Automatic annotation (TrEMBL):
WD repeats lie at residues 336-377, 378-419, 665-699. Residues 206-223 have a biased composition (Gly residues). Residues 199-226 are annotated as: Disordered. This is Serine-threonine kinase receptor-associated protein.
Amino acid sequence: MAPLTVIKPQPEAVEFRTARDGSLTAWVRLQNTWEGQVAYKIKTTSPKDFTIKPASGSIRMGEFHDVQIVRKTAEEGGSPESSKKVKFLVQAAAVTTQAQKLLLYAADKGKAAGRTKFWDSIPKEELQEQQLPVKLEERDEFHDAVEESQEQSVDATVSELWKARKARAQETHRHCSSANPAGVTVVQIPEELKAAKSGEALEEGPPGGAAGAGGAGGAGAGRGYAEPAFEDAKPVRELREDELAQVAAEKAPLRQKGPAPGKLTGQDMDDIVSRMTKHGPDGKPVVQVTRPAPAPSEGEVAAIGLSEGPAPEAERKPLQLASRAQQQNQKHDIVLQGHSRPITFIAFDVSGKVLFTCGKDKLVIAWSVPEGECLRKYEGHRGAVWACSLNYDEGLLLTCGADNFVLLWQAETAQLMFEVELPGVVRCVEWSLGLCLRFACCCNGFKAKPAAVGVFDISLEAMNSRCVTSIEAPRLPSAATQVAWVGPYREWLCSVHDGGLVVFWNALSGSELYRLTAHEEAVSKIAVPADGRLLASCGRQDMEVRLWCLAKPGSEDGSDSDDMGGGGPAPELMRSFTCDRPLNCVAVRPSLTFSEAALEEADGGSCMMLAGGGQDARDVALVGAGTDVDQFEPIPLRFHRVSPDAASGLEPCPAEGAWDSKLRKGGHFGPLHALAFSPDAKLCASGSEDGNVRLRELH
C-alpha cells in the first residue's frame, strides 16, 4: 500500500488527554490535500475499548473532518489496559469515478452496504495508509486546579492554585520564628499587609528612639500598630515616612482585592496563564486567558497611610474566552430547520424582520430575522404550499397550495379568516400594490375546468371574495407556473408558461398586451424589484440569467408623466449571464432601479442579483459532489462595464469574504428552489430540496 498523501492528519499522532473523571479523549483533524473528493476510514487494534466518531467518511476538496477518539470506561465495556499498547491506522482513497460518488452518497444516507462496496472497489495498490502513534498526556502538579479554574473567576482560580503555597509559607514562617535569636528586631505587619504577603518579616531599619516611643503606647497611632512577635524580642520601632513609602512600593504589585495568601510573582502568573490556555487539534488556542491587572484596594492604601483620600477601586478583568470559530474567522450561515420537506418559496416582509417560508410539508412558517427563531406556524393546507404573499399595511397573509385553495390569514396571530377554492392546483399568489385588497393567482386545469389566471377582490366586512378578471385557456398558452404585477405602477399582470414564454396582460380587461420569449426553453422563475420597469428571469435548460427592461422612463429627467397613458410593455434585454448549472430560482435587489441597470459605466460594486439551482435530487451524488464549485450555493451577480466589443452583462461577485467556501462551514445538500433579498439587501435567504433555509450576510 502507498503512503498517505491525499489526507494530512493533524497532529500526526493520537494524543490522549486525561480529564478529571479519568476518561481519555483525543482529536485528530484530517485535511484533504488532493484536488478532488477523498474517502477515509480509521481503524484500531482495540475496537472494543475505543469509540471513533466518525470512523469513516468523505471529505471534499479543501475541507477537513475532525475525528474524536474516546476510550471506553469499565462500565461501557472497556478494559483497564494502557492505551499505549493500542495502534491506530488511517486509510484513504481518492474518489475518481461517478459510481464511487454514488456509493458514498448512499453511505451518507445510512446504507452501510454503499460504504462496503466502495472500499471493495478500491484496488490495493491505490489504497493509502498511515499509522498514528499514541501519546498520553502527563498530568502535572496543577492539572486539576487549572481545569477547575476555567469554570471559576480569577479570584477563585488564584485561591485554589495557592492553597499549597499558603501551607508552605506558614510552615516556613514557623520555622523562622523558632530559629529567631534574641536581640533581633522584628517588625509586625498589619492584617491588611499580611493578606498581601503572609509570613514575611520586614528587614531591620536604622536604630533610633522610635522603639521607645512605640513602647510608650500610642506614639504609632495613625500609622498602624506594632507589637512584639516573641517574648524575648526587642520592642518594635515605628517606621519612618520614607520606609513606609518603600514598603508600599514593594507591596503594591502584590495587593489584590480580598485575602490572597502566598506571594504571587509575575513568573507564576505567566505560568498560570500558559497552563489555562487550551489548544485545539489544529494547534490554535480554543480557550484564551487574559492576564488580570491587579491594583491596590482602598483598605490597603489606608492601612499604610499613603493617601488621605479614597483609593480608586481595583478593576479586575475576567477570563476572556474565544471560540474556535472566532479564532478561525469563519462565517456561519443561520440555518432555519423547521420544514421536513423541500422548500418551495421564501419572502421577507417590508421591515426585513420576519421571513416567511413555504414547504411541501403543508406548512408556512414565520421566522424572526436575524435571530432565526420560529415565531408561528400557519397550519391549514392539506397539500404542498407553493407560495405566499404578505399585505403589510393590513397585516394579511395569502397562501396557496396543491389542495386547490388560497387561504387568507391574520399574519400576527396565524388565525385563518377564510379560503378561496379554485379548480386546480394553485401555483402562485400575489397581492396587488394598491389601496384595494386585490390579488392575482394562477391554477392548473382539472378535468373539464381549464387552467386559469385570475384577479380577485376581498371584502373583509363580508368575509368573501369575488373574481374581477379571469383569463382561461385557450387564451393562455399553457398552465401558468407564476404570476406577478409589473409596470411603472404595477398596472400590468404577467404570467410564466412553458416554452420560455412570459405573457403580459391588462389586469382589468384581461386582454393580452405582449408575448415575450424570455428563454429558449422553460422559464424557471421571474423576479421584479420595487421599480416595476425591470424583470429578471432564469432558465433551467439554458442555465442563463437575464435582466429585462419593460418600460423606459417617459422623459429625460426620468419622470413617469408620459406613462400615465396606459401603454403596453416593450421588453428589451439589458444584461445576461450564463451559469454553470441548471437554474431554478432568481432574486433581484429590491432597491434596483432602471437608471442603475442602464448605467453604461456600471462595473463591479455590490451584489445586484442572485441565482440558484443545481442538479436534480436524483443526480446529487453524481454531479458536483467532489468538484471545486458548490452546485447548491447561491450565485451572487453584479453588473460589469460595457465595452465597445461586448454587450453589457452580469458577472459573479468575487469569492472573497462571505461567499468564500474556504471561510465557511456547511451549505445546502440539494438544489435551490427559492431565493430572496432582505429589503435593505444586507441579508439573503435560500431554500433548498433538503428542507433547510439559510440566512447569509451580504457584503
